[in-house]
Amino acid sequence: MKKRPEAIPWEQVKKELFRDPKVKKAYEDLQPEFAIIQALIDARVKKKISQEDLAKRMGTGQAVISRLENANASPSLSLIKRLANALNLKVELKFTPR
Which residue of 22, 67, 79, 98 has the lowest C-beta tally within 10 Å? Predict the structure, then answer.
């Protein structure tokens, strides 16, 4: 039986990848999208709502929610507002210095 390779901690991989300034910039550019996605997933899970139930509340299909949560789609502000409404949340936009 083959021994599984040891897992490399994310921080170690990230440190290695970030040596390339282009990779670091691309990662940083995507952070707002990932933050939105993570906040929506956290809210849905906290409220114990399935993707299917959330989709029904929004009048859309479960595949839309799945694509969004898997970062296979970039949500429009309109979709974000519909998601927030379906989760009984408020949307706030905040700009901070870099």
Answer: 98
CB 41 within 8 A of CB 69: yes
Is 4 inside a domain boundary? no
**Residue range(s) defining the domain that contains residue 71:** 11-86
Residue 96 included in any domain: no
Question: For the chain, how many structural domains are there in total?
Answer: 1
Distances (CA, A) of 54 to 10, 18, 59, 84, 92: 31, 36, 9, 10, 20
Q: What is this structure's pTM?
A: 0.72
- C-alpha span between 81 and 92 (Å, rounded): 10
Contact between 17 and 26 under an 8 Å Cβ cutoff? The reply is no
- CATH code (residue 38): 1.10.260.40
Q: Report the sign of the C-alpha dihedral through residues 87, 92, 95, 98, in that order.
A: negative
Cβ count within 10 A of residue 59: 8
